[in-house]
Amino acid sequence: MAHAHPHPHSSGRQDGLGGPGSHAGHRPHGGHTHSHAHAHSGSGDSVEGQAEILDLDAEVLAEHLADVTRWLPTGTPPRRIVDLGCGTGAGTFALLDRFPEAYVTAVDSSAAHLQRLREKACARGVGDRVRTVQADLDAAVWPELGAPDLVWASASMHHMADPDRALRAVHDALAPGGLFAVLELAGFPRFLPENAPEERPGLEERCHAASERYHVEHVPHRGADWGPKLVAAGFAVEAERALTVNIEGSRDAAVGAYALGSLRRLRGTVEEGLPAEDLAALDRLLDTDSPHSVLRRDDLEVRTERTVWAARRGA
Q: Tell me, what DSSP letter sits at residue 206?
């Protein structure tokens, strides 16, 4: 489900960031509807594994997500918000923090993620400000969402089977003058230096290249320019911002766990696109008992790019 997070010094283009797993329809993040089992893949493709990644995404990128919510050109603070593809609630809670008078309807296809979100809402003392709705947004009929002042979709639109129809549905659901915030990712975050690991320098870039080839076929809308699509759906695009995130994580255990989970999920899409030597090196990084484990590295960073579009429905 993921998510939008600008770097404090970002140039003006991202629930987490929409990081590695938001759920708008029925697809797991990464775009594949089936998992690729492997001895070292861990639980990244399980519901619990996805939830852990979403929670880590929210923790690591919380500051950047808060910056995006402050940037939104909302005008009058929204009172009714919908979070489409909410995952475990990174966007939901950032929006509740930003707009203390607002109520959020959190929509996702995963009952387990929504349950986790409700538990977190109660623990934070905001349970009365959150309503959860389980729905497949690829279905012909959407659930009743009221007439929200703000709709937030972080790393979820590219998973839609028919995103143009989904954009029109959002337009029709919004209150007149309401705002739609679309946050999308350029790809999986990067964590390793270019010369890592020592025995296979450049491994991560080759993994990303193989993943891009996979996603061109399986997730064709990832990386789309949503501006023209929003205009075609009847919106006026008020602002677009490119966001570059670069977080040093050498002293942060959450960054190590985030890297581990993200690389596990990445492996599922690259198994057939990498030579055996690269797969072996990747598996050493994913083996938490290995001295080469990514958890034991002190040179990790979180590097990613996102774009956020803010579009208005006519009054």
A: H
Mean pLDDT of all residues in 40-51:
57
- The CATH number of the domain holding residue 212 is 3.40.50.150
> Quick check: is 151 in a domain?
yes
Residue 149 lies in a domain: yes
User: Which helix (H) or strand (E) segment is 130 a member of?
Assistant: strand 130-134
What distance in Å separates the CA atoms of residue 39 and residue 100, rounded to the nearest whole number?
A: 45
For residue 114, the number of C-alpha atoms closer than 13 Å in the C-beta half-sphere is 19
Domains: count for the chain? 1
Note down the domain range covering 100: 47-312
Cα distance between residue 236 and residue 246, in whole Å: 31
3-state secondary structure of 83: strand
Residue 279 in any domain: the answer is yes
Phi-psi region of 191 (alpha: psi -120 to 50; beta: other; left: phi over 0): alpha
Q: Which amino acid is at 97?
A: D
Residues 246-259 have a mean pLDDT of 84
Q: Is residue 36 part of a domain?
A: no
Strands of 150-154's sheet, edge to edge?
A: 130-134, 103-108, 80-84, 150-154, 179-185, 301-312, 236-248
Phi-psi region for residue 107, left (φ > 0), alpha (ψ -120 to 50) or beta?
beta
Q: Give dist(CA 236, CA 239) in Å, integer.
A: 9
Q: Tell me how far apart the alpha carbons of residues 204 and 226 are, in angstroms, rounded to a whole number.
A: 27
| Tens digit of each residue's pLDDT (9 = 90 or more) over 136-151 | 988 888 899 999 999 9
Q: Which residues of 178-193 are buried (b: 16+ CB within 10 A; e: fewer)?
A: bbbbbbbbbebbbbbe
